[in-house]
Amino acid sequence: MMEVKQSIPNIGLPKKQGLYDPKFEKDNCGIGFIASIKGEKSHEIVQKGLMILQNLSHRGATGCDETTGDGAGIMIQIPHEFFKKKCEELNIDLPGEGEYAVGMMFLPRESDEDLECEGIFETILREEGLKLLGWRDVEVDRNAIGEIAKGSEPLIKQVFIDKESYTTEEFERKLFIVRKKAEIAVRNSTMHNKGYFYIPSLSSRTIIYKGLLLARQIGSFYKDLSDKNFKSALSLIHQRYSTNTFPTWDLAQPFRYLAHNGEINTIMGNRNWMNAREGVLKSDKFKDGLEELFPILTPNCSDSATLDNAFELLISTGKSLTEAMTMLIPQAWNGNELMDEKEKAYYNYHATIMEPWDGPAAIAFTNGIQLGAMLDRNGLRPSRYTITKDGFVILASETGVLETEPANVEYSGRLEPGKIFMLDLEQGRIIPDEEVKKELFEEYDYECWLKRNKLTLDKIPQPSYLPKGDEDTLLQRQQAFGYTYEDIKIVLAQMARDGKEPQGSMGDDTPLAVLSKKPQLLYNYFKQLFAQVTNPPIDPIREESIMSLVTIIGQKVNLLDNDKKDYKFIQLDTPILSDVDLEKISKINNQSLRAVKIPMLFRSPGTGKDLVEALDLLCQRAKDAILEGYNVIILSNRNINKQQAPIPALLATSALQHYLIKNKLRTNVNIILETGEAKEVMHFALLIGYGATAINPYLAYETIDQLDKKELYVGHKSSEVLKENYNQAICHGLLKIISKMGISTIQSYRSAQIFECIGINSDVVEKYFTGTPTRIEGIGLDIIAKETLTRHNIAYNKLRNPIDTLELGGKYNYRRNEEKHMFNPYTITTLQKSVRENDYKLFKNFSKAIDDQAEELCTIRGLLKFKESESISIDEVEPVSKIVKRFVSGAMSFGSLSKEAHETLATAMNTLGGRSNTGEGGEDSKRFKTITMSATKQVASGRFGVTAEYLVNAKEIQIKMAQGAKPGEGGRLPGPKVNEKIGKVRHAIPGIDLISPPPHHDIYSIEDLEQLIHDLKSVNPKANISVKLVSEVGVGTVAAGVAKAKADLILISGYDGGTGAAPYTSIKYTGGPWELGLSEAHQVLLMNNLRSRVTLQTDGQMRTGKDVVVAALLGVEEFGFATTPLVVMGCMMMRKCHSNTCPMGVATQNPELRKKFKGKVEHVINYFTFVATEVREIMAELGFRTMDEMIGRVDKLEINKLLKNEKTKDLDFSSILYRPNLPQRIVGRKIINQDHGIDTAYDLKLIEFAKPSLEDKTKVTGDFKIKNINRTVGTMLSGKIAKRYGAEGLPDDTITLNLTGSTGQSFMAFGMKGITINLTGDCNDYVGKGLSGAKIKVKLPKECTIKSDENIIVGNTVLYGATSGEFYANGKAGERFAVRNSGATAVVEGVGDHGCEYMTGGTVVILGDIGRNFAAGMSGGKIFVYDPDKQLKGKLNHGIVNSADIEKLIDTEDEAILRNLIEKHLEYTESKKSKMILDNWDKEKFNIVRVIPKMYKKLISEYQAV
């Protein structure tokens, strides 16, 4: 095997520096293709491909250089006629079409290195027996591209290779070998500029032209593309949007086989598994073996490029395009009752071979003969296609990318989750999904294979012996494994009793693990990562149908083997094993499965060295066992004793995982844990994330048995029921954790390592947790061993430590002499007394108690001190009145807070000149334009109360992408908290549950966020648009993308804030400190020269002037406070916010408790004045006259070495205090306003046209044409109406707009009452989001002959968060139609998956097919479904609504309403479907059913009665 010495650096990509790490680069994009169905080549197809690219240009982005794009490219078939002519000019004798290959080559611009690369390539060609025909310089126009693109532009050449006597399949395989060997040879060379070397394509079928280009530049830059002889039957294009301005030429797409719009969330695990598989990879297609091609996955490339590598490998071994793609991105099969058993068996078989490459994806792929496309299992990326009567197919991320005559349209559709679109150019036809799948599923009898090989635990004989816990030593073992009284009462008991994770509130004010004086479990040094902006989290409750915990124990066969050999495997429903389950597995012994148990223990007393030796021994034992034929390795710490302490299970698991990967032994091995350590959800997630197949938490089970026996905390349930509940809580928690990252299956999550370390040194991480980020260094194995042995000593050294009870804990609630809490009785009472008495000296006592962490460290900033500086007089420092304008209060909704608390805070902030934030619950319109109005209006995933009127009454509009206490999760306001006032503000009926989904359903990618920013800026051009992110590794890269998306302000929230309810798993283990997040964001924005365009803000348990100054020095201009102002207003940190029982009236809707609210506006004003006063004092000490001078001055901070101790001595904050080495002109604060493109908006002409209506309500009617590039049409006009006339808007039909064409994204977003749209054409995604009273009517052109109820006419996520208005369309809608609709009326002729999700009000009529998971999370409103085939029950989500909520149409009032709506639909859209139903009403009305949630129906009746 050829040794890989190093990876090739991406030219244009900076090296890791400060907190920036290039491996967290992300991208999203637009894809598309056009093809002749009959395979007829033409130059027109190339030109139209480029036109598609240009019409998707808004899905790309630029950074500080407006003339350099993030990347664009086009893949076409080899244009033989063109190359024949060009090669003749070069005296290259080109064979016939298909008899040669062309390689597109990016080479170093240095002539000697260019020649060296060519020489390497030619040498490998000869070694592989291939004949070189010649080289050609590709003609380019360097004047067509931007300056940044020129700076990293490679030399571009083409190489021609003779096919000779090889078959096409053999030739393509040879070319694959040549390319891989050339890449490795250059990678291992000493060339200085080898990073330029890249081969975009090397094939006899296809060629790729791409680069660091804007869509409009590619045709000009590559002169070949404009030659009339340059012909192809297909053009596949890609427009890239990188999250920052460090994109590179090689990362532009398409790649060799595919173009990918999305993100592979499990990429770390996929890479680990593919690297591990290299030990067993074999294929008869590669006679000389594959070793010389390793690594199969190119190092240092993007997730999309890695996916292409894996896809390419599968294709090269003879797998079809569809088999390869369904192996990598399988459909959701487990639990899918609608799926055929043969199809399930196919996916189940492949699940034993390969884990899914999971994440949102729209993929177009081709080998030059077949052209396909598909989506991820959840359909999280848009793709629309049109088939024309003259023989073309056009597919793209949007409809309308090419103008098509309506009469020429044969079919208009969308890619659907799990379905494959496939065009065969040789056969000259589109192959239906059913035929594609049938060929896959029936080529082998997978059902029989499963019957022969699949084992389940219930079929394995009961063990004769079962290890039992020793009740006498239970306490001792609990002590050794770190159990506390709190753990048992708050965590274990609640999960066992209720089957749910315990919840808390008010964030986390305890120390980071590395700062705590208490010995910590290793798990506590890790934080979960989560999705924000570049991909969405998933709702694991309402979209459980696509989630899976299925776990497979057994060998993974050679991925490339096509023989389908028999091998036994065990399939588990979950990765949690009971004691009986584990014993069954441990005794299994057959040809396919052999289990061995290895102790994970080390010597006590001992040291870090003893721990290292024990880990080495464990790994060696595992290796020996594997070589002897064992493939189920059970790591056990059951036999701990006085002399043997447990190796931390996480350390043992990850150490073995990486040891086996490095030794190419991991593929066929399963790591199972028998551990007394795991008890919380995070423990299980970490163990699985670092490689564990399954886990038996034996001590947790013993503890539950004890609780049952002693009747403590768990009620009167049997021990078995309690353990089942506990397992259920763990499983629900695991689903929630994996869904935060947008991952659907535990199989994909396993080994994905989606965590960061905070406080572990890089030596430990590099060896045992390889690939995990750790940014501030920290403890080593010596401290890990010491903390383990401290617990062990308490348990077993009873002479010196005669402790016969568990420690209290103090992790969740303050307990004296236990874990430190920043808010404790002293700090709370001192703060409250100071603000009530307006006593600054008393406040200084509070701030000293917070800031002085000499006794007990708690925060990163607590370890920082200000450098001695030349001070100035405080009189020279800007006044308090100016400083407080930079203060904002955190987002806390009216609903979570009482009316009194919410309005007190708003009044105080307005008085000071700062800003308060509505939170996600909307705002009572009576507060608009008064002192109680919140200046910042939040737009969250639930869109509660988000209307045009709400938005135009904002100074700032904040998009909440994540929440500090629970990023990646949604929320739920329980019905009892929804009183009449809250119901009115949130446009809901009082008493119903209001659910906020984890994702924004109009933000699945960075370009979607850019779209929402554009929407909000359009409705209120005067407001600043901000985006709230949560600190995690890589947030700087995301922040750069957000800046490129034209946000005006970016908030980086710390993990420790959060006033609302959240699972303790989220509060304790998700997100990072704001010190890390804001520093990274500031650094990366500076490196991108984007910092000057955005304001940075931070929040998360900010309390004192020091907190503000540290944040400013690290790079922010504004400062958020939430928890502390609540304490100021009376909160005593009872942490009962989620229970509606707040005794101080702060966080409750209970009218009696609200009477106890004692907060006053002046108390809040006093607090912020004190903080600003303290800020001034520090500024004077540091020599700063203004806050602006102070922003980003990290040179004024240093670590306070006097505070370091044994645990913290190796902490290194140099990455936090890093400032990129940049010229002075790169400014570190906002000085430039973003260009939102509002000045050229389509709506400007509509506003001018509607001037009479806006001024005096005169009716106007006008005709306009529209294209897909016209985005957010009608929104700016709606904003004008809302600003002038409020929620009432204009009288119906005041402004009538007759439009023709394909609308762009967000058509009529927040459309106001008084506007009527008559659209002849079709629409893209997000039509009518936030609809506020407008009428939208969409119909097909008369010339169009397609059948409306079988064709798509509007895209995904239509009417998201609509509060009022009407919508009619004579065609089908895409996924998530009417999601979170709370008041609009709609009639359509079919919807995709997840229709009417989270609906709380309004009326929806569906006169056609519905997709899966219908009405998930629906708590209100009415739905009428035309269901002659009785499919509704099988597609309904049975969470809130169920089959009992499906009613026949017997209510005469409802029948009248329904008939009236269908009559309107016929009148407005000329729908043939509506006409048929109305013409046969007496018969067809019995095919219509009503769906209405029981609780909603009951509440409506009660409400109407009152």
UniProtKB/TrEMBL annotation:
Belongs to the glutamate synthase family. Its cofactor is [3Fe-4S] cluster; FMN. This is Glutamate synthase large subunit. Its EC number is 1.4.1.13. Pathway: Amino-acid biosynthesis. Keywords: 3Fe-4S, Amino-acid biosynthesis, Flavoprotein, FMN, Glutamate biosynthesis, Glutamine amidotransferase, Iron, Iron-sulfur, Metal-binding, Oxidoreductase. Residues 29-426 form the Glutamine amidotransferase type-2 domain. It holds the Pfam family GATase_2. PROSITE patterns: GATASE_TYPE_2 (PS51278). Coiled coil: none annotated. GO terms for molecular function: glutamate synthase (NADPH) activity.
